Amino acid sequence: MKFGVIVFPGSNCDLDAFHLIRDILQQPVDYISHQTADLADCDAVILPGGFSYGDYLRSGAIARFSKIMPKVAEFAARGGLVLGICNGFQVLTEAGLLPGALYRNDSLQFRCQQVSVRVENSDTPFTNAASRGAVLKIPIAHGDGNYFAPPELLQQMEKNRQILFRYTDEKGKTRIDANPNGSLDQIAGVCNETGNVAGMMPHPERAGELILGSADGLFIFKSILNHFLSKEAVKHG
Amino acid sequence: MAEQSWRQLGLTDQEYAMIIEQIGREPNLVELNMYSVMWSEHCSYKHSQSALKQFPTSGRRVIQGPGENAGVVDIGDGWAAVFKIESHNHPSAVEPYQGAATGVGGILRDIFTMGAQPVAFLNSLRFGNLEDARGRYLFDGVIAGIGGYGNCVGIPTVGGEIYFEDCYQGNPLVNAMCVGIMPLERLVLGKAVGVGNLIVLVGARTGRDGIHGVTFASEELSQASEERRPAVQVGDPFLGKLLLEATLEVIEKKLVVGVQDLGGAGLTCALTETAARAGSGITVELDRVPLREAGMHPFEILTSESQERMLLIVEPDQYKAVEAVFRRWELSPAVLGKVTADGQVIARFKGEEVVRVPAASVSGGAPVYNPEAQEPEYFKRLASLDPLDLPAVKDFNKALISILSSPDIASKEWVWRRYDFMVRTCTVQGPGGDAAVIRHRESGKGLAMAVDGNGRYVYLNPYLGGMLAVAEATRNVSCVGAEPIGITDCLNFGNPEKPEIYWQFKQAVAGMAEACRVLEVPVVGGNVSFYNEVEGEAIYPTPVVGAVGLLDHYEMQAKSAFVQEGDIIYLLGAKEVSLGGSQFLKKIHGQLYGKMAGLNLNLEKQLQNLLRYLISEKLLQSAHDLADGGLAVALAESCLAGGSGAIIKYNCTSRPELELFGEGPSRVLVSVSPELGERVKSIATESGIPVEEIGIVQGDLLQITSGSDSLIEMKIALMERAYREVFTWIME
User: Fold this and answer.
1) pLDDT, tens digit, for every residue of B34-54?
2) Domain that holds residue A213
3) What are the catalytic residues of A?
4) Do B424 and A10 touch (CB under 8 A)?
5) What CATH number should be reported for the domain holding residue A87?
6) DSSP for B96-114?
7) Cβ contacts of B237 on chain A, cutoff 8 Å
8) I want to staple B170 with a disulfide (CB 3.0 to 4.6 A). Which of A23, B136, B534, B716 is the partner?
9) pLDDT (tens digit, 9 = 90+) per residue, B539-555?
10) Would residue B204 be called left, alpha or beta, if left means φ above 0 and alpha means ψ between -120 and 50 degrees?
11) The complex's ipTM?
């Protein structure tokens, strides 16, 4: 399965995603420049974390206009798997490929720490390797991770099972003090209606080895791989 | 030239006379500005040079010692570690966010200028009292600035230290350190070599920010300092990151022969230093410098400290390739001129020659001063006071909680969770331990790093305090199992023209140098920051040591947390402790005086060797240096880090507060699996290191008894709140 990691000017978690996919997941992976006009040979695309274009205007607001983004939209419309992590999530919401928006953290401070997230829907290409209700330990590192969606949209997302992860305590209980950024309904990750585009504030690429504090991030990458392999099996079956 | 011109620019009459002698005529206004910035204390080290000669700067691993943008140390298998620490105190005092951010940006450029991939930031910070609103503003602004730059460029901030003393109230210390790794063969220096080679400027446009930043950094702070806000530079981490990527790419492709970043003293420094180092000359056209605003005077162009700029020396036939790389990163390089053979730095502007000065005179021609040194009046007086004359303390639980919740000792998680300490996924030990550890994927090695400095100790006894700073930084690195391979230092002092301050400086440097010699760690670079005074009141003399250590394999690192019930706790090393200059004396009695415990450097060295051996043989479960707050605080910290309790039986032979909270060097707390206890004991004894079994890891209490007396009995959960929540209470 071929992964592509998009590199915007200012991306800085591109190498971490690349390393995890190549060295831990052991799958082919390429960097894809924001100037590239083609995603032809990718089976899944990662929009990594960082500060695209310095995030000077608003996180992700400039990157959504880059040359690669219409290609990402086309890729997604064809059913391609797209995962936005942190700044990548922000870019996808700015581009309208994911619902909602990400505001400044309610603390008004950057937060880098391990958090626990509960898997809310395990029937997606990004979560199928975990069970529903499973609690994953994955770190966050962001200043703008405060998820928001208007009430009608949120209701619709709930109905469509578009909430993928919620911040909880280590036991999987939602608690105000387990919410690191003030996100609405403790939302840490969501997907689009068709389930093939997902965004999450926690960094699964930083949780791929126990020596880094957790290997739970592998659930997300293994899910993507499972999904691809089962699709291939159907195709060839 | 009018007399006031050079005086206003911070030059003395004698210095002005020296300039005339060196160039054989009066300098024009542009040249005078160049001399002013390059002969400032910040750039010329004119008051510190002679003392700094005491530092050992060579060693079997040293590739590049002081004098370049950063030090370079061989870590084996064709790789090198590159590191440096630098101060940004004055800018941070008037504009904390930008002052700190540009401090980080500046030290970052120093590392990648050499060709190294930056892998970690550390910092050493000092602030005044947080009860004061200005103190909180500076503290919060500096932290936000460090995070703002470091988080954006994607280099993790993995460690540091922070202390609070009234003497830093108007003059905070912001010392930023960066560590990089590179293949040895990639090393590139800041030399303008090869006559006819092109002088290329790339990065941000040049504006009017930061003009005379270095002269501002070379004077005392006062009410009027607020007006120097324009001398503070403004950082653009996004541009910094593009510049980092593009510069490393042209170095990796061997497209450049010399690289120099533009920091203090801007273009003036970059042109004269690169030429002086190579013994060459440079001719430039200032009209070709891309400007941010119209109407800039040549002296402004030459002394602007606009950030995110690099100077490259490029062979003419490589220029097209260099340009292509930078264009791909959306940067536009500009060819300013050429390398010449005549040793002169010549600048033309609008067709006229506005500068013609010898490079070696501007960079390197400044006078070297040996100011008068005099022991301050307080020195003997404070040493003669004995903390044990103070009334005895009865409630040690209360004392421990009080110390654990003091901002100096309390967990700094409130601070470092605002820094991205994980990006690059190489941080195998982050902030909060004795030293941070960064793995190097390609070689499997680990780099350990720590910064340490104790202004209280150095104030009481500069010579001993200087030695202690080196001993503690290297001990911290040894505590995670790494061999100290080099240090970088940032020497923060008051006004060196005052004999008492210069005495502190000379003594501290002598102590540091002695410790470096015995411990066999070279100083490979650093920075001196004088004039840390507000309205004539100096800070405590605060030398800060950044130590870098090497682990053959990063998985072999040790941590400070107690991890397993039943493990035996040993105290290794020296016995001598004192309450002189201690946190106990500060927090409980509000005092700073007394004599500190002495340092036996040979014992220190053997202790560090022993520690590394025990860790490499996998004999230890944890190792933790005893520092501020002494044994009781070290025990509490190891308990808190591991979430487990400890039962300690300690035979107090003197006053319990001395035994519990007394501080002394060369002491380390380790925990060991019971079956390995005897082996550890016998190895320590054979190595000549005193070893004492003091208790076991157990339960959820920290219990310390002496004979039948209970000294401390406290729930870990209770300590946890005192230790972890203090900054939230103060700041929010």
Assistant:
1) 999 999 999 999 999 999 999
2) 3-235
3) 86, 203, 205
4) no
5) 3.40.50.880
6) HHHHHHHHHHHHHHHHHTT
7) 51, 54
8) B534
9) 999 999 999 999 999 99
10) beta
11) 0.97
